[in-house]
């Protein structure tokens, strides 16, 4: 079964000057459940725009997106909220942790909005921080963690609601190569052991090397 499918997906931006920028042009892609797929391409190729549309953070100008076989209705805000709470997890280049919350509290945060009890939140966060190798750092603030540790917290947070799909936008972009490789290995391990599908935008050749498939974009089109 496909976890994600796009059909003739396009995204245009029109400016007051009348200039129109074509960020995506007729993208057709199918991602099967359990796949680890890397989107690669130069800056401005459309890969982050594609990820944002699949993640329902943006909407297409035309075309359709299907998640688990169901067409995404970008006009239905409650449906989008359910997708974010139940199906899709996010990992960002800049980590996007809440600076005033420690590691455990950051992982608990999405569970709070899903109505999970406080005791279960702590139990789940403890499990996940142990999974990413931070069982001894759960009470540290982001400012007390290295970049690699912060990204591990971000991965744990993305897994909090047991999503079937994780979208990662340049997850190693702010890390040195050794730390980036460890994050890459961690995500691949989670993919293989838990069957979570990963869609990753990257410039990192190591991330591309370990992927099941690499999809290359240029000027808003798939080239390979």
TrEMBL record:
The keyword Nucleotide-binding applies. InterPro entries: AAA+_ATPase, ABC_transporter-like_ATP-bd, ABC_transporter-like_CS, ABC_transpr_LolD-like, MacB-like_ATP-bd, P-loop_NTPase. GO terms for molecular function: ATP binding; ATP hydrolysis activity; transmembrane transporter activity. Pfam families: ABC_tran. Keywords: ATP-binding, Nucleotide-binding, Transport. Residues 4-224 form the ABC transporter domain. GO terms for cellular component: membrane protein complex; plasma membrane. Gene3D superfamilies: P-loop containing nucleotide triphosphate hydrolases. The keyword Manganese does not apply. It comes from the Archaea. This is ABC transporter, ATP-binding protein.
């Amino acid at each position: 079964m496909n976890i994600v499918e796009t059909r003739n997906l396009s995204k245009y931006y029109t400016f007051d000057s009348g200039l129109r920028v074509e960020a995506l042009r007729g993208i057709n892609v199918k991602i099967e459940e359990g796949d680890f797929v890397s989107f690669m391409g130069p800056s401005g190729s459309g890969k982050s725009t594609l990820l944002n549309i699949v993640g329902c953070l943006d909407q297409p100008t035309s075309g359709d997106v299907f998640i688990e076989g169901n067409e995404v209705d970008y006009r239905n805000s409650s449906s989008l909220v359910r997708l974010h709470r139940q199906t899709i997890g996010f990992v960002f280049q800049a980590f996007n942790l809440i600076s005033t919350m420690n590691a455990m509290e950051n992982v608990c945060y999405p569970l709070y909005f899903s109505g999970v009890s406080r005791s279960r939140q702590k139990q789940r966060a403890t499990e996940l921080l142990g999974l990413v190798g931070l069982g001894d750092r759960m009470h540290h603030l982001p400012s007390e963690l290295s970049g690699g540790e912060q990204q591990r917290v971000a991965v744990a947070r993305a897994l909090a609601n047991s999503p079937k799909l994780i979208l990662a936008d340049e997850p190693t972009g702010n890390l040195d190569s050794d730390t980036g490789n460890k994050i890459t290995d961690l995500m691949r391990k989670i993919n293989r052991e838990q069957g979570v599908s990963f869609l990753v935008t990257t410039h990192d050749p190591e991330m591309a090397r370990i992927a099941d498939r690499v999809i290359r974009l240029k000027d808003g089109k798939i080239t390979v």
